Amino acid sequence: MSRRPGNVNPGRRIAEGGSGTIPIPFVGSVQSKSRTSPLLSIGLLVLVAILLIGYSYSWSGGMSSKEVPSKFEGGISCTYEVQSAIPILKKAYGDSMHKVLHVGPDTCSVVSKLLKEEDTEAWGVEPYDLEDVDTNCKSLVRKGIVRMADIKFALPYRAKSFSIVIVSDALDYLSPKYLNKTLPELARVSSDGVVIFAGYPGQNRAKVAELSKFGRPAKLRSSSWWIRFFLQNSLEDNETASKKFEQASTKRSYKPNCQVFHLKSYQ
């Protein structure tokens, strides 16, 4: 489409007539007027050029407000959901959101957004390999704010190092064998609760979560499955935080695309 301007001259030559040619009235009239009004001709040419540039740009992949980052294409990203839910979480947890650990893929983006919140400190654990990250993420890793760690084993933090631990797009890939170790670890390093963002059964996962270093597809479990598993690990529902989260969600007309569970920390 961007090559259309190249067709202007042939059309003009045909319009000029000659043996065996058919005159084009519109083009001919423009030429006639151009002899008496060169400024009008120049203005028309500039207008046509602007229209052609805009038309070709729209076909060549110009930016659109509907575009989303490629890592969120093809499904739901619960890590992206965490970023959307930060205002709701702050309403539900209040002052407990002052020292937060996020565990999950693309944790740099979550940590960066949390650090912009007033009176909030944040750290992150990336359970997958960090590839093609931006300079901001490299800086967070260099400062030790974000670190890579295999969450199938003990987390590299002391007990109650954080007030709240938020995990997304990570537990869905763990078998019950490893969940038995990981969930207690999340509760151990938190003091005021654990928030889990998990996918729904039958839900498509985002591409960022498909590249699991655990080598297995996501197991999207029902809420009843998770509740039974929490009880087996002596993890209690944080009813107060759950109610506040629900109230804040209703007030802001926010409907999570992922399951959200609020658990108490180990006392």
From TrEMBL:
What superkingdom does the record give? Answer: Eukaryota
Q: Does the keyword Transferase apply?
A: yes
| Alphabetically ordered keywords of this record | Membrane, Methyltransferase, Transferase, Transmembrane, Transmembrane helix
Please name the GO terms of the biological process aspect recorded for this protein, alphabetically.
methylation; pectin metabolic process
Task: Extract one GO molecular function annotation from the record.
Answer: methyltransferase activity
Which interval of the chain is the signal sequence? none
List where the protein spans the membrane: 39-57
PANTHER family attached here? OS01G0144000 PROTEIN, S-ADENOSYL-L-METHIONINE-DEPENDENT METHYLTRANSFERASE-RELATED
Under what name is this protein listed? S-adenosyl-L-methionine-dependent methyltransferase
Organism name: Trema orientale (Charcoal tree)
What is the phylogenetic placement of the source species in the record? Eukaryota, Viridiplantae, Streptophyta, Embryophyta, Tracheophyta
